Amino acid sequence: MRTDQCGRALGAALLGILLLACSSATPEASAQRGAAAELTPYSAARDRPDGVATCYTDLSSRQRAVLELRRALADNDRDARPAALSALRDAAATYPNEEEIALLLALGTLWQVSEPQSGELLDLPVTLDALSLIPRELERAYTLCPTDHRIPGWLGPFYIMFGNLKLDSDMVEKGKGVLAQGLERYPAFVSFGKALAYADRPTSDPHFQQAMAALREIRQRCAVAASDPACADTPQTPHNAQGFLLFLGDLLTKAGDRAGALEAYTSARAAPNGASWLLGGVLEQRIEDVDQRAQLANVPIVRSLQSNAWNDFTCSACHAR
């Protein structure tokens, strides 16, 4: 097994599947790297459900560290990620009351763990530090902004999967509680976190059926709330729809629903901005290999090595340009 495959396998073991372009099959970073669009601050989403709101400020959104992390993710520029995360750590110490800084520090570190550079996860002290930082900063961000009900969609699955890895039933139950809270307050967004939490389970596991139900929940809700940023492409998630459909297609392939998987994949192919999508080649390969993948999806040794959206493209599928 090559080093990058070992890194992915370790990442999957550490986080189960976690979490929202690092595999050997991942295309090179966007051609826009080095000639990226100008750095621009986050644009507040206006169409979220009542009671759901971020607490970002002009001060945080214009911080160089915030802009650099957003640009690195948009360009799938993993070479720029360590410097951006280091700057975010400094910014978090300087501005401890800014939700956006705490949240992006957590999510940027989550991106690093779930889509590592070759060999990154083999540095055990760095990995352990990251696994400690992620829940700490997510919890701090939620404390700073109790109306940002997206956060349980990241925090709950982290506790469930890391708790299962550690055989820590209390942590798993904590994660389920966090997830339930988020599902009550922002189901269109947090349902995706629930799917992530259980997507890697065998199809015979009832939790896998919960993952499937969570994706059906998203489709139903987004059919009537298409402008919700949980459903729509945005400047921060320019391929939100395609990332979701790739994930859905992979899950349906695993479940043996060939027709449903092909419908999801072909819908992703037809989605807006399809020609520029980082994972266009991956999508075409999925369509070509759907029968073989379905046959092998529940062979344990193959399942641990086979590329799936929830292991390989957890952040870049939606966020990269």
Structure, explained:
With 321 residues, the protein is mainly alpha-helical. The protein has a single domain (3-22, 56-319), classed as Tetratricopeptide repeat domain (Serine Threonine Protein Phosphatase 5, Tetratricopeptide repeat). Helices cover 62% and strands 0% of the residues. The protein contains 17 helices and no strands.
Mean pLDDT: 85
* Sheet having the most strands: none
Task: Determine the CATH superfamily.
Answer: Tetratricopeptide repeat domain
CATH level-3 fold name? Serine Threonine Protein Phosphatase 5, Tetratricopeptide repeat
Task: Report the C-alpha radius of gyration, rounded.
Answer: 18 Å
- The CATH architecture is Alpha Horseshoe
Please count the beta strands (DSSP E, at least 2 residues each). 0
**Low-confidence blocks of residues:** 1-38
Amount of helix: 55-70%
Form type: globular
- Give the total of domains: 1
CATH class: Mainly Alpha
User: Can you count the helices?
Assistant: 17
What's the N-to-C terminus distance? 30 Å
Strand content: under 5%
Instruction: Look at the helices and sheets and give the structural class.
Output: mainly alpha
List the helices and strands in order: HHHHHHHHHHHHHHHHH
Secondary structure topology:
Elements: H1 3-15, H2 58-61, H3 64-74, H4 81-94, H5 99-114, H6 124-144, H7 152-166, H8 169-185, H9 187-198, H10 206-224, H11 240-255, H12 258-270, H13 280-288, H14 290-296, H15 300-303, H16 309-312, H17 316-319
Helix pairs in contact: 3-4, 3-5, 4-5, 5-6, 6-7, 7-8, 7-9, 8-9, 9-10, 11-12, 12-13
